[in-house]
Amino acid sequence: MSNPVFSNSDVFGEPRRGAKGGTATAPSPYTQYGAGGAQAADAASLQNMYNAPSASPVDTKRLTYTDVIMKTAGLFSLLVVVAAATWVVAPGLWVIGMIVGLVLGLVNAFKKNPSPVLITLYAIAQGAFLGGISKMYESFQDGIVLQAVLATLSVFAVSLALFSSGKVRVTPKFTRWVLISMVGYLVFSLVNVVLVWTGVLDGWGMRGGTLGILIGLFAVGLAAAMLMIDFDSIKRGVEGGVPAKFAWSAAFGLMVTLIWMYLEILRLLAILRGD
Asked: Which secondary structure element, helix H or strand E, spans residue 38, and what is its range?
């Protein structure tokens, strides 16, 4: 997986194989394991099982799409509120928000079990970061933030529609291509930042002009591809019956990808406008 939030998770990753290459399967609910080995349940127990109503994912506290949607909506609502407050009151907090958000993002990405508190703090930090950085972009060109928000929502909707329709399938080859592209883009971005900070290049560095536009479009497309991989990871988690608590991890993973996409679109629009 390209998104570390999902790739480092034991529940959202690819199905694990057994020692001889077979897919591990869960024991049958009709078999009890004791010190003497497997013992078949008696006829009365089996009859009770058949007569009992089917348990829903909510009853068994398994992950559902509703869980993911509710957690994601809640975190983004908090992010928007903090971003709006930062925009109005203290845009300069974006630097602190960026640093804190980066640290919390790394901590949450590599935690095996989700921490609702740390994920919520990440949303707050990113809200402060996005509120301040968006205000700075808006000061360069009126309306650019609204355009970036609408564009991000549009790309998200198209990515979800393509994934849901099955027109774009997340295959191992597709995932491998995204991973290689992500590594290449990361190396390019780091080199560009170093060249700008050291004064070798000015302005957007290698991100300016026609090349910058092409790279920006590529980055947005890459973020959209990562979204589809995120959707596939969540689908695998729901179908695999993972615990409901991992809705926090799924929401966090989506938030990481969407924030990155928004920033890339914001930068692309600024380059197109020549600011």
From this structure: strand 37-40
